[in-house]
């Protein structure tokens, strides 16, 4: 477990804490890709949050602080915080959430969308499935399944905060 104090900064709309190369090296020497860690800020949340630290390119990493972490720790950009990080030994690549049956069925009925889904990078698939898993209502799920299929079919479509278009 690595424990240190740092200032919460922001890049664009993304609050983060910079983890120096020396600190990152104590977690996992020689790691150069997104680094899976368990994080707590000011002792919160009680159960450490799973996140990937993103490499900066010089051996240091950006630890982006999700809104749930900032809310649990009652922190904001500009605050000096106590950060606890541990390498996530249980981390496994690939989607965390299962593909909803209705989305799988829609993909199977649309070969262009299915081919585009297969070509998506694993992190984008994971992001889409996590998005679906967090939708609360049937209406929201149906609406977003439709948008995803439309986007994957090559139509210009707003989905998940970005415009998707023919690739």
Structure in words:
The strands form 2 sheets. A 7-stranded antiparallel β-sheet has the order 1-7-4-5-6-3-2. Strands 8-9 form a two-stranded antiparallel sheet. The protein is 35% helix and 31% strand. It contains 6 helices and 9 strands; from the N terminus they run E-E-E-H-E-E-E-H-E-H-H-H-H-E-E. The N and C termini lie far apart (42 Å). The longest helix is centred in the C-terminal third of the chain and has 15 residues, at 138-152. The chain is α+β, with helices and mostly antiparallel strands and 167 residues long.
Write a short abstract of this structure.
This protein has 167 residues and is of the alpha+beta class. The chain has helices spanning 21-27, 67-73, 101-109, 111-119, 122-133, 138-152, and strands spanning 2-7, 9-11, 14-19, 35-41, 44-55, 61-64, 80-87, 157-159, 162-164.
Features of the shown structure:
167 residues, alpha+beta, Elongation Factor Tu (Ef-tu), domain 3, 2 domains, 7-stranded antiparallel β-sheet, 9 strands
């Amino acid at each position: 477990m690595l424990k240190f104090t740092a200032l919460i900064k922001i890049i664009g709309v993304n609050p983060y804490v910079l983890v120096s190369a020396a600190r990152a090296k104590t977690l996992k020497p020689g790691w150069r890709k997104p680094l899976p860690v368990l994080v707590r800020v000011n002792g919160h949340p009680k159960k450490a949050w799973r996140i990937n630290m993103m490499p900066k390119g010089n051996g240091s990493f950006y630890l982006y602080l999700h809104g749930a972490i900032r809310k649990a720790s009652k922190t904001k950009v500009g605050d000096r915080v106590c950060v606890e990080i541990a390498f996530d030994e249980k981390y496994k690549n690939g989607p965390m959430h299962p593909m909803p049956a209705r989305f799988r069925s829609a993909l199977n009925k649309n070969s262009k969308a299915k081919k585009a889904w297969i070509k998506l990078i694993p992190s984008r698939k994971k992001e889409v499935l996590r998005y679906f898993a967090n939708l609360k209502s049937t209406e929201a799920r149906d609406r977003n399944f439709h948008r995803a299929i439309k986007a994957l079919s090559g139509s210009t479509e707003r989905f998940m905060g970005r415009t998707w278009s023919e690739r």
